[in-house]
Write a sequence for this structure.
């Protein structure tokens, strides 16, 4: 059982470039989330999805977009990358949302220069 | 706005030296308080959920407790393999979003 798989593990972007961070889960979870983690700042929610075709903004959505066409996949799109988007990005899933524990991937470390 | 503050930011212990990590929170109606463990280069891993004041949960050398204002993660006779960053998060009555604290980095020396 792979759980939550994120690709790539590392990426360096130039300012203004775009990219997609991939996330896939094989646990048939309805809820999926994207977080960013900056040193000492805690995890901040970017976007989340409660099922295929349904997405909603989290705490820090500006500069990002998501889609959820299948239960398994939840890609995060960065348009016009900025240095402020340098961070570690984590994808997570949960069975029922709310009190259900999150299962995290191992992250994508992104540097924008 | 929900807030979570963890202290200390970093804690160095000798193997076998018990201690506690603190998670102070303000939340508009607590639905749950969560503890996660994060190893370097990895995603957080779920440890416990606490739902109401007075509740306690245990797992090996770890015990989590909850009051109306804070939670403690007690570590008894820690081993080097307990070294990690421990994250606390709260869920309010309104929705599906967790609010995380900044974490406590625990280092246990042999």
């Amino acid at each position: 059982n792979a759980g939550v798989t994120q690709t790539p593990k590392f990426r360096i972007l130039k300012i203004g470039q775009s990219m997609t961070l991939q996330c896939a889960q094989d646990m048939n979870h309805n809820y999926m989330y994207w977080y960013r983690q900056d040193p000492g700042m805690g995890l901040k929610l970017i976007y989340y999805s409660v099922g295929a075709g349904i997405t909603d903004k989290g705490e820090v959505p500006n500069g990002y977009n998501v889609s959820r066409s299948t239960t398994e996949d939840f890609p995060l799109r960065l348009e016009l990358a900025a240095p402020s988007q340098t961070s570690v990005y984590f994808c997570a899933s949960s069975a029922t949302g709310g009190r259900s524990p999150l299962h995290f991937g191992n992250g994508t470390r992104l540097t924008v220069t | 706005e929900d807030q979570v503050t963890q202290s200390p930011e970093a804690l160095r212990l000798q193997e076998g030296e018990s201690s506690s990590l603190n998670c102070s929170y303000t939340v508009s109606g607590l639905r749950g308080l969560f503890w996660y463990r994060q190893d370097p280069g990895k995603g957080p891993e779920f440890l416990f959920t606490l739902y109401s004041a007075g509740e306690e949960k245990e797992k090996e050398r770890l015990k989590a407790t909850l009051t109306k204002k804070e939670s403690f993660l007690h570590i008894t006779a820690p081993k080097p393999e307990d070294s990690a960053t421990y994250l606390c998060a709260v869920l309010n009555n309104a929705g599906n979003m967790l609010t995380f604290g900044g974490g406590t980095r625990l280092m246990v020396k042999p």
In short: Chain B has a mean pLDDT of 95. DSSP finds no helices and eleven strands in chain B. The two ends of chain B are 41 Å apart (CA to CA). Chain B touches chain A through 25 residues (CB under 8 Å).
